[in-house]
């Protein structure tokens, strides 16, 4: 039988090579009761046959399909279930597993899983095993329940290369896009159109239950109307009744509110246009409802735009760009300004966790109270076409079906229509539209299969649709396409479960269309309890298998991915991630469903995730530093350990005694800076102290996150991967350090002027400058250094040469001012406005910038768009266009940061870089003329975009923060940290820092160390200062020093340092 199947596959391919292409339309899964759509209409089949006589079209008989088999036959197709010679097989949704041939290479693996087999003995003889399949497969996002389906198209890693010829190709409609990346084949408009009809029908039933019969009682339900055209004809008749008789008096003016701006809302508005509608604005609502003489022969439609119901919490006006960047700064006033006035709300706007809800559960009672006061049964009817459970409309509790389309929200009078398969209720028009959009792609696919187009050789290079089809291909020839290679692990796990069920259990072996488990979209005790049950079941599988340790990550930002990758790949660990961003959670967990679960939770509210803390062994907080103390409190209360990458704040310090009493470890400062810097410095100091005759006399440490040298051809030679305002503000911080025996204090006003022009770093092939970083003297206690014996102790931030000079000019010009807000008419206004804020009167740029710096400053301002360009040659390559101008008043610093976020962003293909460098000088007191220099250096580059999806890939900053956090958390979970390490600590214990450093070494982030001896001699004298050993970093820094000694402001500087994070 296997030989026969392979031969059939070869025969089919030979047929294609003769120019004959067989196209087949399969039936949809019989378990999908309402699925009546077809991917290709009889009309388009006839057109295809007329233009492409070499095409043979096969159609599987189906009495549920919207088009009858006879129509396809008349169009030139043949009715059959024999698809053995079909080159292309089309459907709408996933093909049922029993109807898809099992690859010959793994047929023998399924003997213990008969539900995976076709109904016949051996691989199915009815479908060509090498065909190209088109469908909405729901496999490319790593949907766990469809891994068995994906495995029909992808060979296991262990498979021999000789069997690839009999694997089918999978093309997913959802991945078909145009050159702008926009989806080209879909059903959104029909969801909106059907949603209007279903919602009006629901509205009429609601009114009838209150004793009011409205014209909408005759609204046609699309699935039982035969066609959308008939629905519209009936809707127009309803409109005539409204125009002639008006709507019932008890209802007052019927006002329908529409949200959304995409195809869904367009479908809504296009359908409502067949009624006698009058469009209104939000400002007209109150007067309209209160007008006793209102014209009830119209339907009033309000298309609510986000700028009318979202507002910033600080009172500033709505900005779309700002809203998507800072959704936490916005709140919805829809519940107050719009919802109470609506007879029907048609909701078609998208929503994602982390963004403000349109209406919350807490707001609903006030909505209904206000609506009741207005009369007309307002606020009681909703058609939620977007159907986000518990989403923008938090009170939406579940979706409904066409058989039972609406329900009453518990404990409220609100009636909800929330059918989530609306396009299937318009199978005729939805299929016609889909078929027309698909036809160009189909012609391309036929040409590429036959090798001919209009009698000539097919040239794929000239076929844009062919390129789109290639991009939409998930797998071909038994191999995943490069962008989907991360799914191979899922496939291998599935096959492993077939060979050895105890090794891995297939998620679903009965149906590719029925999820065995769905993503946990809302954090709640009920959903997380399944994790506990899963752990218990795992423990019961064998007495020798200990229960898995569970690590909880709070936050899903830029440093999360490497941490997630490392923890997810560790046996015996179960990982849960909680965040308010569903999109980020899905990205982080894609391909890791066997070891990672996620929860959407409002991480600003501890009550939303406390149950997750209770069920975990270790918690990692990647939240903003202000949230850490509260997380720490919960960990202490419930006896859980905590790991963070942030400095120990005063609030966190206060938990020390309670944590020790609870035998809890709150491990902080375990990222890059602080983190790797601590671990490497302490390890190096420990080596030095192993020799009793050595004493440390100098400690310098510099760290910086920078663009890689080939990405630094921009002003400042710097790019932003996070909020620019933080970098700009850091340029205003004070600093304190000791160098060459002298204490130095630099006020923030002088920091940039006091930069170190050269900071030597071992192994660096590029120049660097440095800025002192806050209070270095506190590290005498941290590292056990005797400040009385230390001639130098200095920590700083690295930048490329020229950064401080140019940033100082920006500061002198007022661009870093925060004392007042300004409003701009254009970006060229910013410079003049900023100078007025700083200097209070008219100032000339040439008077504020030293003449030697003027050329580079003018070029930079022009490049950034702050000065008009006169067409002169630029010293840097052209950059991105300036962003949209903020309309609200902002400080010069905030405006400058907004500009830099766009102009100095990382472009596609550019990498970042992290540089960390320690130099420690020691000596034997009995021989002070000879000193030993110890260096420890890390230079790490980020992954290119194509590598980011790989294990532990990402930006250099993300890797050097996320991976140490993961290593430390795993050490805590696995009991590798010494038992005496409890309370609020940094990574100062040997059991912590050695494990972190060893783990970093294993992933290519090891520190490079060197040791060499130098004589202690004065090489030259600068003023009254001897310069010693310019071959060392300390000597070079002393030589570049131009800061007068000072002891002013030490206490204030200490307070400024408390809890502050280093700006890398």
From TrEMBL:
Q: Name one Pfam family in it.
A: Sacchrp_dh_NADP
Low complexity composition-biased segments: 504-530
In this chain, the stretch annotated as Disordered covers 504-543
Q: Which residues form the Alanine dehydrogenase/pyridine nucleotide transhydrogenase N-terminal domain?
A: 24-194
Taxonomic superkingdom = Eukaryota
Instruction: Report the GO terms under cellular component.
Output: cytoplasm
InterPro entries for the chain? AASS, AlaDH/PNT_N, AlaDH/PNT_NAD(H)-bd, NAD(P)-bd_dom_sf, Sacchrp_dh-like_C, Sacchrp_dh_NADP-bd
The answer to whether UniProt assigns keyword Secreted to this entry is no
Pathway listed for it is: Amino-acid degradation; L-lysine degradation via saccharopine pathway; glutaryl-CoA from L-lysine: step 2/6; Amino-acid degradation; L-lysine degradation via saccharopine pathway; glutaryl-CoA from L-lysine: step 1/6
Q: Name one GO biological process term.
A: lysine biosynthetic process via aminoadipic acid
One of the record's GO molecular function terms: saccharopine dehydrogenase activity
Similarity-based family: In the C-terminal section; belongs to the saccharopine dehydrogenase family.
Q: What is this protein called?
A: Alanine dehydrogenase/pyridine nucleotide transhydrogenase N-terminal domain-containing protein
